[in-house]
Amino acid sequence: MNRKVAFYTLGCKLNYSETSSIGRLFNNAGYQTVDFSDTPDVFVINTCSVTDHADKKCRKVVKEALKISPNAYVTIVGCYAQLKPKEIAEIPGVDMVLGAAEKFQIVDHITDLTKNPKTLIYNQPVSEANEFIPAWSFGDRTRTFLKVQDGCDYSCSFCTIPLARGSSRSDTIEHAVEQAREIGRSGVKEIVLTGVNLGDFGIRGGERRDRFFDLVKALDEVEEIDRIRISSIEPNLLTDDIIEFVALSKRFMPHFHIPLQSGSDKILGLMRRRYKRELYANRVAKIKELMPDCCIGVDVIVGFPGETREDFIGTYNFLNELNVSYLHVFTYSERENTPAAEMKGSVPGSTRAERSKMLHILSDKKRRAFYESQLSKVNEVLFEGDIKDGFMHGFTRNYVKVKTKFDPVLVNELKTALLTQISPDGDVEITESEEMFAH
After folding, report:
1. pLDDT for res 432
2. CATH 3.40.50.12160 intervals, the chain
3. Weakly modelled stretches of the chain, pLDDT under 70
4. CATH architecture type of domain 257-270+284-372
5. CA distances from 344 to 50, 126, 267, 304, 334 (A)
6. What are the phi and psi torsion angles at 414 (to 5°)?
7. d(Cα 419, Cα 372) in Å, to the nearest integer?
């Protein structure tokens, strides 16, 4: 057949794992995976719809794809495709839209690459997306994103994810362990566990069968993998058991990403979050008590309806005093069919932008301070295969990004190194020890 397919992924780590799995479906059907710029016969664009910006990105990617290969067959999958299929169908050049329950049957749906005037839409209600489909990324980096959970039963007032992905459902522990072994045997040294609500792992058929902690303990026994990271976990689901286990584990890295969203209890209530800031502070304190060098990342939303200047300053001060390492800052944007979109007290766009800028600056300061605290310490680094200006990068166990002169022998290797100084671009330079560079 000699048909070529190219992929473009927008959004989260979970999307990247699913794109890789969809890619393997195409490969098994005889397609060759090529770069986006290599005039493919089929484009598959896996979308996100967390913000309006993500929707606009989808439109732009379609436009650029058709510049590269005007006659290519364009298929859109992902969260945006589930939420707004008719809107996507109006984008010039889109041939097919597949919803959450259909995206893993994509090869079956693409039987003819003839471009038709009318876009085909296969989009069942999200309630039909009740089966867990395993996925993992491969071939694009030294680490793999392993999907172990999908969907969400929470009802945060700003979020469309339950509308786009359906209810919480999970893999079995046995299958997740076997996939981890297979990934390790392929030569990958680090797995990042991913899911929509990862800490809610264990629900199958609408019933809780396991706990996330059970999965963590089982994966820690997988000898084929050197490193495992927990991607993002709700603070109310990050239990003392998990923290204490990670602190003693050889495979689970001292690195947590914990969504906060707001440092104001009032705003957390309006967001329908399941904790208050005191619980969050306690989680951070517990981690730092057992793992002083642990890296902690934070998600935070600015400009939520009803967020006054006092609320924002309270969030800023809370984060400033919190012993965390970096922030992922999101500017609130109204999403259709969410309670927050109907709330009073809309924050002007200029104010949202100003608050976002303040938190981005704070994040830079937090990351710098964390990196400085790691200087003169020896840490294990997993090196990646990138080259930029003659340098390659890697990450320590606690997620410090380091750089050194490119050496192909170091790609996907674990080496201990002394962290010496912070370079002008913000990465950490390391000592070129004889042990590290011995070939």
Report:
1. 66
2. 4-128
3. 1, 50-52, 54, 139-141, 432-439
4. 2-Layer Sandwich (3.30)
5. 21, 29, 13, 10, 12
6. -100, 120
7. 9
